[in-house]
Write a structure and sequence with these properties.
Layout (H helix, E strand, L loop, with lengths): L2 E8 L6 H12 L5 E8 L6 H11 L3 E6 L5 H11 L4 E4 L11 H9 L4 E6 L7 H17 L12 E4 H8 L8 H8 L3 E6 L13 H15 L2 H29 L10 H34 L6 E3 L12
Parallel strand pairs: 1-2, 1-4, 2-3, 5-7
Antiparallel strand pairs: 3-8, 4-6, 5-6
Bound molecules: uridine-5'-diphosphate (UDP) and magnesium ion.
Uridine-5'-diphosphate (UDP) binds next to strand 1 and helix 3.
């Protein structure tokens, strides 16, 4: 029988975790695979850890990994992917919004020779207008300026074969946007559309700040276009300077130099514009340098608190 690892990041989900596990367990009962369920507790401050401990005592397929603090959804997923060693690895959320009913179909597709089974969220009325709008704008932007094409509405609900998981492990970058990384590695993939049900309980743990951070990570690690904006603006400024020079020379040539008023306002205008553009360029370069700085430091993407004998830097480059 084939083995399957389920990787489930959990952050402050005390209201939902038991419900979710019961539903998941009921679903897995019907499937002819050997499952291991990895719950990655991403530094929850509520009773999630206690509840996970109870779940793992009652269900021997469950393994719990406690991160030392809240490192974020992508880091928690990475922690799970680094430990998964089954034939197939499926990642899903702990709130029931990634329907466990689809696991059987995903495994069937993998059995038919696909290396990656992606899922695509079909937005319905229940998705807030704000979320729908931000998500579609984000994917349009990233697919326009980046060289890696990412399915709009792609979710972190997907199946990967062991080979793909190993490919991801060879990418030790600190700023992680797994949807982009999975698109980047290639392999044979198929997309399953799904309609997200509402959360089983509790509230969203993806704050606006976390969403912004994720989209920044995606844009700056999958596109160099922001750097080119600075260069393009610089070129434009040089061109304007040339036009201005020709303009001034034309006054000299026609002998009208006395008509050229000493214009304080236009000068200020130019200075301000140039200053503004320079600042933008420097700012953008600064972002990339910041990212390079963080990569060079080679910090681990996460640290494990429990079990304590875990090697610390599984994901970091040697
Ligand atoms: N999550 C996490 N760390 C975080 C934020 C979220 O591990 O810092 C987990 C969360 O427990 C859930 C999944 O990531 O299992 C998706 O989060 P959520 O459902 O809150 O996001 P939404 O569906 O609202 O986008
Ligand atoms: Mg959710």
């Amino acid at each position: 029988m084939k083995t399957v690892d389920l990787v489930i990041p959990v952050f402050n989900e005390e209201e939902v975790i038991e419900l979710f596990h019961a539903k998941l367990a009921a679903e897995l009962k019907t499937l002819p695979y050997v499952f291991t369920i990895w719950y990655i507790n991403d530094g929850s401050k509520d009773d999630t850890a206690k509840k996970l401990k109870i779940i793992s005592h009652e269900d021997e397929r469950v393994r719990v990994l406690e991160l030392s603090r809240n490192f974020g959804h992508q880091a928690a997923l990475t922690a799970g992917l680094d430990r998964a060693n089954a034939d197939y690895v499926i990642s899903l959320d702990a709130d029931g919004q990634h329907p466990p009913e689809m696991i059987g179909e995903m495994l069937e597709l993998a059995g038919n020779g696909y290396d990656i089974v992606l899922t695509e969220r079909m937005d319905t009325q229940s998705t807030s207008t704000f979320k729908r709008w931000t998500s579609s704008t984000f994917y349009r932007l990233i697919n326009h300026i980046g060289s890696t094409q990412i399915t709009p509405g792609a979710a972190d609900f997907r199946l990967l074969t062991r080979q793909v998981v190993e490919a991801l492990r060879s990418m030790p970058e600190y700023h992680r946007f797994l949807r982009g990384m999975v698109a980047w590695v290639g392999f044979r993939s198929v997309i399953l559309p799904y309609t997200p049900p509402p959360r089983m309980a509790g509230y969203s743990k993806y704050s606006l700040a976390k969403m912004l951070r994720l989209s920044m990570d995606a844009i700056f690690s999958f596109s160099l276009v922001p750097l080119y904006i600075g260069i393009s603006l610089g070129m434009l400024m040089l061109f304007l300077a040339l036009v201005e020079m020709i303009y001034v020379i034309s006054f000299w040539v026609t002998g009208n130099i006395s008509n050229l008023a000493p214009g304080w306002s236009s000068l200020m205008f130019i200075i301000l514009i140039v200053g503004g553009f320079l600042m933008i360029s420097i700012g953008l370069i600064g972002v990339y340098i910041g990212y390079i700085f963080q990569e060079v430091k080679g910090r681990p993407v996460y640290l494990v608190r429990e079990p304590a004998d875990e090697p610390e830097k599984i994901n970091a480059a040697d």
